[in-house]
Amino acid sequence: MPLPDIDNSQTLHLRKAAMRDVEPMLQLIAHWARRGAMLPKSRDVLYKEIRDFYLLETQDSSIAGTVGLHILWSDLAEVRSLAIHPSFQGHGLGKRLVLGLEGEARELGILRLFAWTLEPEFFKRCGYSEVTLEELPPKVYKEYSKHAMHKRI
């Protein structure tokens, strides 16, 4: 199913995701997963982890972007499922979402963030460094996929 067009001149606001957002989030994530730019997410996972997610929403309630902060341990969290609608690509929104999560992580006392990514160059521009599996706690090995990016905040 193709993504709906969104007018990229609309004002955006950041908010926590709600249950009503699962279907449009799933559609946005699936769009990029089909293109090999990110891993897919299941509907089931999005419902279970909805409290991890933030959205950039337009004035007409369309979703321009999404990202999740998944806490794994007392000092470690994962940046998950970062996706920006194609109409809003190239406007710095992905970086805005990642840096926003870093602020929440700091408030929670989380000192390290990591991301599994198929787009390591994006995370490098956000200050992350590529690491080997041995540099991450064994707790995260089971989710290994492509590039592991890490940042102390």
Overview of the molecule:
- It is a single chain.
- The protein has 153 residues and is of the alpha+beta class.
- It has a single domain (12-152), classed as Aminopeptidase (3-Layer(aba) Sandwich).
- It has four helices and seven strands.
- The chain has a seven-stranded mixed beta sheet with strand order 1-2-3-4-5-7-6, with helices on both faces.
- A hairpin with a 2-residue loop joins strand 3 and strand 4.
- The longest helix is centred in the middle third of the chain and has 16 residues, at 93-108.
In summary, what is this structure?
By secondary structure, this protein is of the alpha+beta class.
Question: Which SSEs are present, and which pair or pack?
Answer:
Layout: E1 12-16, H1 22-34, H2 43-48, E2 53-58, E3 63-73, E4 76-84, H3 93-108, E5 112-117, H4 120-125, E6 129-131, E7 147-152
Parallel strand pairs: 4-5
Antiparallel strand pairs: 1-2, 2-3, 3-4, 5-7, 6-7
The CATH topology turns out to be Aminopeptidase
State the total count of DSSP E strands.
Answer: 7
Q: Quick check: average pLDDT?
A: 90
Please work out how many helical segments DSSP would assign: 4
Count of the domains: 1
Fraction in helix? 25-40%
The residue ranges in which pLDDT falls below 50 over 5 or more consecutive positions are: none
What distance lies between the first and last C-alpha atoms, to the nearest angstrom?
38 Å
- CATH architectural label: 3-Layer(aba) Sandwich
Determine the structural class based on helices, strands and strand pairing: alpha+beta
CATH homologous superfamily classification: Gcn5-related N-acetyltransferase (GNAT)
- The top-level CATH class is Alpha Beta
Give the H and E element order.
EHHEEEHEHEE
Share in β-strands: 25-35%
Major sheet: arrangement of strands: 1-2-3-4-5-7-6
**Any idea what the shape is?**
globular
